[in-house]
Amino acid sequence: MGDFLGALTKEQILVATEEALRRFGVAKTSVIDVARILNVSHGTIYRHFKSKNELLEGVTEKWLDEKIIKPLTDVCNDTSMEGPQYLQSYLRTLIELKHHYAREDEEMFKMYAKVTDEAADLIYKHVNHITDQMGEIITRSHIKSEEPSRLARTIFYATIRFHHPAHAYEWKSPTIYKEFLDVWTLLEKGFISET
Question: Which residue from 13, 97, 149, 184 lies 20 to 30 Å from 190 (Cα-Cα)?
C-alpha cells in the first residue's frame, strides 16, 4: 500500500468514507475499508481522524453542509420572497431535503441518523445554523417578533416531526405534507396574531 500522508487530505478521506458507507453500509464500514479505497494503511487514516466515530462525524458534517445547509442557504439568500411564505418555503425545503435523502441516499441518511444520536456538538451546530437562518428570514420578512431567534427555534421544534431523522418512518405516510401544512397554518396564525 502506498502511504502518501503528505498528499492525502481530510477531504479525500471523507470522500472515500462516503464511498465505503454507500458500498458496505454504516454498520459494516470500517476504517480499513476506507484505507483500502485510498490505497493507504489504516494508520494513515488514524493520523487524520482519531477514531471511526470522529471519521463518521466528519462525513456527516460534510454531508449536512453539502446536501442540507447549502440548499437552505440558497433559500435564505433568495430576496424575491417575503413574509410568512418565505419562512414556510425555507421549512418546506428543509423537510423535502430530509425526506428526499431518507429515500434516495439511504446509507448516508442512516449514517446521519446514527451520528445524530451520538454527536451532540455537531447536531447542535447544525440546528443553530438552521435556526439562525430562520431568524434572519423572520427579521428580513418583517415578521414582528421581539425575539426572532426564539420564534425561529420554537417553529423549528414545533415542526421537528417532519424533519428529524428519528421520525423518518412517519414520512412514508401519504398525508405527511398535508399534516405539515396543518401544523404550519396553526403556527402562522399564532405568530401573525402577535404582530
Answer: 97
